[in-house]
Design brief:
- By secondary structure, the protein is mainly β.
- It has one domain: TonB-dependent receptor, beta-barrel domain (Maltoporin, Chain A), CATH 2.40.170.
- The protein contains seven helices and 42 strands.
- It has a 22-stranded antiparallel barrel. A five-stranded mixed β-sheet has the order 1-6-7-4-5. The protein has a two-stranded antiparallel ribbon with strand order 2-3.
- A hairpin with a 4-residue loop joins strand 29 and strand 30.
- It is globular.
């Protein structure tokens, strides 16, 4: 703690000293500190900061926002890989950046953490059509700047909602497409009212049957924002949320099925007692509701000072409902899921026969509340910007399960729980950031953060075992960097950042309690010319006790992690936009990387083996994208998007059975904006053709092993296998938007 306080004092001393430093040429970004900037500056990096970043606006998202989840709108950014359980981007989707999965990408909405506090996951399906209310997006790769919530271990994704609307209006948009996909959005805004008030809102409805069999999605969402603004004050109250019901499609398929029936979905499968196939259970669903309330208050305090206070409440509740088939569980999965004793039920005696197992339907419930508040103050003039703030959050989550039907119900009672437990997580943090313009050429950056985490669990988990955890963590995360402006168009930057990350709930269930540490070094070049924007970054990320995906998944499709010891990720990322002329443009990104475990130890065929340096799972060495765009003065726009993802392993042992092949997809986007719309103020027609060349590809999967000492007594043989999540062949969406 003394070390932390001394560092904060050092930053404050640098801040005071900077005020009397001879002032050089003005820095545009610091000249005007608008109230909008106050809301953004705690977590958002500025263009000249020594932080690797990509930025998107609402205008960038609109042409491709046709109902697919948010990760699919980020596919063109460097190092980004997207996945879809249902195969077409609607429903459960995933995002990986620099080989790090969504649990290691820190996501915030208006500066409030969106990652689930316990699982650290990001479930975009809970906020369908969020992109229709997002104004700005920033993807920071690497450690990035200090953010609230779990530390960034691959990237941080910052979203800001509340698009500025200058006049009252209503807009309606609808899209229809493959797999019976439909998206309908209604938006309204009062524009600025008298006395500085305004009101905006959105209602959304998305439905899709999914590419995978029965992988349907029934999604609804809302967004409501009330605002007040005058010359010194900006106040926003937001309420937004969603409801999702999806048919489960997280089990994947094996290699043989992939070759013969790539849309097959085993979820909800039913057999009779002799093993004869009977069909699929209709209500094998995941159902969840999530609501957010946020208050954002920013204030101009005069004399270069501004402040912001944010408060948030999130309530989530829902369940997985699944059919447990006795024959399938015992003869295919070799599990005891159909055993009545697992649910605290007594055996059933029927006609003198003792029945210990039964077909049944179970629900696994989640009910959680998340409270968060943060505040910061900022001083900004021509040479200095200094921000300091604090954050506190509390998460309380209940986990419980019940049997809602059983063929042999035993002595169960309605609503009887067969497991019940909870988790409580408290987190606090302090941070202080300094941007100091030393001269016209040089800018330095410092960012210090201290995090405290307290986590407690109690009760029983779904397999009947107890989970009683009492853990506390204390992390200090320093970050430093410098930017050198060579001339009007070229600048270079260098940065070092350290981040720590606590284990998640499922890690504790696996007996993992050791936190991770990341040291990240970034070297970059930016060029902003009249018609070319270019950035290139070399990075080296060194991990201690990195929790990597083992390749295996649990019984609800969530990936299982294990500690790999020392490991690293290093690479080169290039991002460029070339405006060739007033009609043609080309956007390209390329990420080349090496991702290695240094000394990976595993057990194979009953023998503990040190495999030495191995590839980290789910980390392709090459990721590239290209977008060619053509636009006419008459309102037509065409864009051709191509994405290549190199080969990767789904485990950390570099076994052939775990290899996921490289793939390339091509999308075509066509839009037309009426110059003189025959209805409303503006009209826009959009056509999106995904995977237009029908590439037969798989973007995600899992890899598992188990030891067999039964087939050959006395000899242990490791059996390995893999599962795959195939993605849709050629498919399309067409939509129309009208503004009144």
């Amino acid at each position: 703690m003394k070390y932390l306080l001394s560092c904060f004092m050092a930053l404050s001393f640098g801040f005071v000293k900077a005020q009397v430093w001879p002032q050089s040429s003005p820095v545009d970004s610091a000249q005007v500190q608008t109230l909008d900037a106050v809301i953004l500056n705690a977590s958002r990096a500025k263009a000249e900061d020594p932080i690797t970043q990509s930025n998107l606006s609402a205008e960038d998202l609109a042409p491709i926002n046709m109902g697919q989840d948010f990760p699919y709108l980020l596919r063109a950014l460097p190092g980004v890989v997207t996945t879809s359980d249902a195969g077409a981007g609607v429903g459960y989707t995933g995002l990986r950046v620099r080989g790090s999965d969504a649990t290691r990408v820190n996501v915030s909405i208006n500066g409030i953490p969106y990652n689930d506090a316990e699982s650290q996951g990001v479930y975009w399906v809970n906020l369908p059509d969020l992109a229709s209310s997002v104004d700005r997006v920033q993807l920071q790769r690497g450690v990035g700047s200090s953010t609230y919530g779990p530390g960034s271990f691959g990237a941080s994704l910052n979203l800001w909602t509340g698009q500025t609307v200058q006049e009252a209006g209503v807009s309606m948009s609808s899209a229809f497409g493959s797999f019976n996909t439909q998206k309908h959005t209604l938006k309204f805004s009062t524009g600025p009212l008298t006395d500085g008030f305004s009101l905006t809102g959105r209602l959304s409805k998305i439905n899709s049957d999914g590419y995978i069999d029965r992988a349907s999605s029934d999604l609804a969402a809302y967004y409501l924002e009330a605002g007040y603004q005058d010359q010194k004050t900006k106040l926003k109250v937001l309420a937004f949320g969603g409801q999702e019901e999806t048919y489960q499609s997280w089990y994947g398929i094996d290699q043989a099925t992939l070759a013969t029936d790539r849309t097959y979905n085993p979820a909800g499968i039913q057999f009779d007692e002799s093993g004869n196939f009977e069909g699929f259970y209709d209500s094998q669903i995941d159902r969840y509701n999530q609501d957010h309330i946020q208050l954002l208050w920013s204030q101009d305090l005069a004399n270069h000072w501004t402040s912001q206070i944010s408060m948030n409440y999130t309530h989530g509740r829902g369940y997985y409902q699944e059919y447990v088939d006795q024959w399938y569980s015992e003869n295919v999965l070799f599990s005891d899921d159909a055993n009545l004793a697992l649910y605290g039920l007594s055996p059933v005696v029927l006609e003198g026969q003792v029945i210990n197992s039964s077909d049944l339907v179970r629900r696994r419930w989640l009910n959680n509340n998340f409270y968060a508040t943060n505040g910061h103050v900022t001083y900004a003039d021509k040479t200095i910007e200094w921000t300091s703030g604090a954050f506190y959050s509390y998460y309380g989550g209940d986990h419980f399960g019940e049997v809602v039907w059983a063929r042999y119900a035993s002595d169960s009672e309605p609503g009887q729980r067969y497991y019940s437990g909870n988790g409580d997580k408290n987190e606090g943090s302090l941070f202080s950031k300094l941007n100091w313009q030393l001269s016209q050429k040089w800018q330095i950056y410092a960012d210090l953060q201290q995090r405290w985490i307290s986590y407690r669990t109690s009760g029983i988990i779904s397999d009947g075992s107890a989970l009683n955890v009492r853990q506390q963590y204390d992390f200090f995360n320093p970050k430093f960097g410098a930017t050198y402006r060579l001339n009007q168009v070229d600048s270079f930057y260098a940065s070092f950042g350290r981040s720590h990350r606590e284990p998640r709930r499922s890690d504790f269930e696996q007996g993992v309690f050791t936190p991770e540490r990341l040291d990240d070094i970034e070297l970059g070049w930016r060029r902003t010319d009249r018609n070319i924007n270019l950035s290139a970054t070399a990075y080296y990320m060194n991990y201690k006790n990195q929790l990597v995906l083992t390749g295996a998944i649990d019984d609800v499709g969530a990936p299982i992690r294990g500690t790999s010891g020392d490991s690293y990720r290093m690479g080169l990322e290039v991002e460029a936009l070339w405006q060739i002329d007033h009609r043609w443009s080309w956007q390209v990104s390329l990420a080349l990387s090496e991702n290695k475990n240094r000394d990976y130890v595993t057990e194979f065929d009953g023998v503990l083996q040190n495999l030495g340096q191995t590839d980290i799972s789910f980390a392709p060495g090459v990721i590239g994208s290209s977008v060619w765009s053509y636009q006419t003065e008459s309102g037509w726009r065409l864009a051709w998007f191509a994405k290549h993802v190199g080969a990767q392993y789904m485990g950390n042992t570099e076994r052939d059975a775990s290899r996921l092949a490289a793939y390339m997809v091509n999308d075509l986007q066509v839009s037309y904006d009426w110059q003189k719309p025959w209805l409303g103020k503006t009209m826009s027609l959009k056509l999106l053709l995904n995977n237009i060349l029908s590439a037969d590809y798989v973007s995600n999967g899992y890899y598992y092993t188990f030891d067999d000492d039964y087939s050959n007594p006395g000899v242990v043989q490791t059996i390995e296998g893999a599962g795959y999540y195939p993605q849709a062949l050629a498919n399309g969406l067409i939509g129309l938007t009208i503004e009144f």
